[in-house]
Design a protein that fits this description.
The protein is mainly alpha-helical. It is built from eight helices and two strands, in the order ααααβααβαα.
């Protein structure tokens, strides 16, 4: 009574083995034919997808990626504004984040037996980040030895973890989430909160004698004397892209309302 079932299973298994040996053979035992009807064609119908729906899917996918990028940029801009208004609280939060990350490195060494080079490079990077939390924070000089050393420590730490995970079988999602918590968390918060020392008004914390002659020029370029580094980038991008957006909107017959005066922080 089980002979038909066994026979069907054996037939399917034989067809699957034949498919592995000859990839051009379909599940029914016949070879896929090329566009010319022969077996020697280079292009095959199974590898070409010229449907209009496929084009729509690709266009929608790229549009979705663009919308997600805009949403992320908007969220980052809002977070940078909030951080700039609460620099002292952010400074305290950064201290806690650095200490927590250093503690996580210790646990990774003792509990998970992670490589010593990765842990030591991570602790070195956290120590370099802590040196940036001076009394002049968030104003720093991007050419100072401390800042350059912090960037080098971040690079070495990321390289150490990359070499470690290249010999493992962890998924890309696992690696990204791990690096986000252990490697990138503190640098991202620092990037959102720090401001260039060259753009500080004379007399403000972190201001040097060389900033007096450049104060007005920095205000015009970066949108204000207290703009953070990332906010300066957003302001420059906005200043260069707004004319093109208005020109494109005029072609579409859309009238953009004039935005009110920018709120200085």
């Amino acid at each position: 009574m089980n002979e038909p079932i066994d026979s069907s299973f054996e037939t399917a298994r034989t067809g699957f083995r034949a498919r592995i040996k000859n990839p051009r053979q379909n599940l029914f035992g016949a070879e896929d034919r090329g566009l010319d009807g022969g077996g020697g064609g280079v292009l095959h119908k199974s590898t070409m997808d010229l449907r209009f729906s496929t084009l729509l899917v690709y266009v929608s996918a790229y549009a979705l990626v663009a919308c997600l990028a805009v949403c992320i940029a908007t969220g980052v801009y809002y977070v940078a504004e909030v951080i700039e208004e609460n620099t002292q609280k952010v400074k305290k939060l950064l201290r806690y984040c650095i200490l927590a990350t250093a503690g996580a490195h210790a646990v990774l060494l003792v509990w998970d037996r992670q490589p010593l080079t990765c842990v030591l490079s991570g602790l070195l990077a956290q120590g370099a980040y802590y040196q940036l939390l001076t009394k002049n924070f968030p104003y720093i000089s991007f050419t100072s030895p401390t800042t350059l050393f912090s960037g080098a420590a971040l690079f070495v730490n990321q390289l150490a973890w990359y070499l470690h995970f290249s010999d493992t079988y962890e998924t890309i999602e696992y690696i990204v989430c791990f690096c986000l918590a252990v490697v990138w968390l503190v640098p991202l918060v620092l990037l959102l909160s720090v401001a260039s020392q060259d753009g500080v008004l004379p007399g403000a914390p972190g201001a040097g004698p060389s900033t007096a002659g450049r104060a007005n020029a920095q205000d015009a370029l970066y949108g204000g004397p207290k703009r953070g580094f990332l906010l300066q980038v957003f302001y420059i991008v906005q200043a260069h892209t707004t004319p093109y957006i208005k020109l494109f909107a005029s072609y579409l017959g859309i009238k953009l309302g004039r935005k009110g005066a920018r709120r200085d922080i």
